Amino acid sequence: MRTLFPVVLAALCVFVHTLPVSGQAAQPVVRILLSGDSTVCNYKQDAPQRGWGQMLGQFFNNNVSITNLAVSGTSTKTFRTLGYWDKLLAQLKPGDYVMCQFGHNDSHDKGKPESTDAGTEYQANLKKFIDEVKGRGANIVLVTPMHRGIFGKDGKMSQELLPYAEAMKKVAKENNVALIDLYTASGEYMEKTGSENIDPVFCGVKNDRTHFSENGALIMAEFVAKGFVAAKYPLAEYLKLNAGIKKTD
Questions:
Q1: What is the dihedral of CA 46, 49, 51, 57, to 10 degrees?
Q2: pLDDT at residue 26 in the model
Q3: Contact between residue 219 and residue 32 where contact means Cβ atoms under 8 Å apart
Q4: b/e map 150-180, b = 16+ CB within 10 Å
């Protein structure tokens, strides 16, 4: 019996070592990397603005990790020329998901360094993003730019970003990649809310109707989350849309 004791003790040690640690969190199995502009990026806690990328994690369960690499002021051109796209690619692994929303700064006046033409350069830039993500064995989801909260006298939303939303839809279709139409969802919501009631959606800085308050960013993030459901996209299975999420209608 004495000769068996060391063997039994060793076996018990191996068994105990392989038991899961109580309370240890499971590692995320899905990684999402966000690229975009100031309507997507993270802000400091004391800032009045919030990007929808900052709020998106509230809609996913613990199997998903989100890295927000969006940068204020960037376009499909300058996100690359300023080195931010290379930073994203350096972190990208096969099977990851990249979400891409640009258009606001692309639409700036011609001659500005961030400006692109919706019919040519903007589409070429998106196509290059797609090719490079796919080439690394990862997945890309295009997100059309949301409306600015600008209304005409007829109560309808301004359409200065429509060429970029339509161009992104065209690129997504031609390259067989997923698309979430935040442009349409945000426009319908803002028109329904109305110009006289829309201010709380935005950050409250002067007459800024581009950048969102925390509540506004949460609304945009929910539209993005619901877009996965509408498209029956694989990421939809990780959403928690029925877990007390704020209603937008």
A1: 40
A2: 61
A3: no
A4: bbeeeeebeeebbbbbebbbebbeebebbbb
Confirm if 165 and 183 have CB atoms less than 8 A apart: yes
- Answer yes or no: are the C-beta atoms of 201 and 227 closer than 8 Å: no
The reported pLDDT for the residue numbered 159 is: 94
Which neighbouring-strand residues pair with 139?
97
- Overall fold of domain 40-238: Rossmann fold (3.40.50)
Contact 184, 168 (CB under 8 A): no
Q: How many residues does this entry show for the chain?
A: 249
pLDDT digits (tens, 9 = 90+) for 146-194: 999 999 888 889 999 999 999 999 999 999 999 999 999 999 999 999 9
Contact at 8 Å (CB) between 210 and 160?
no
Which parts of the chain sit beneath pLDDT 70?
1-26, 241-249
Backbone phi, psi, residue 65, to 5°: -115, 140
Contact 54, 41 (CB under 8 A): yes
Q: Give CA separation, 41 vs 83, 84, 182, in Å.
A: 16, 13, 16
Q: Strands, E, within 20-123: which ranges?
A: 30-36, 64-68, 97-101
* 178-180 sheet: strands from edge to edge: 64-68, 30-36, 97-101, 139-143, 178-180
* C-beta of residue 219 within 8 angstroms of C-beta of residue 248: yes
Give pLDDT, residue 15: 38
Rounded to whole angstroms, the Cα distance separating 24 from 161 reads 46
Give ∠ CA 74-195-99 in degrees, rounded to 5. Answer: 30
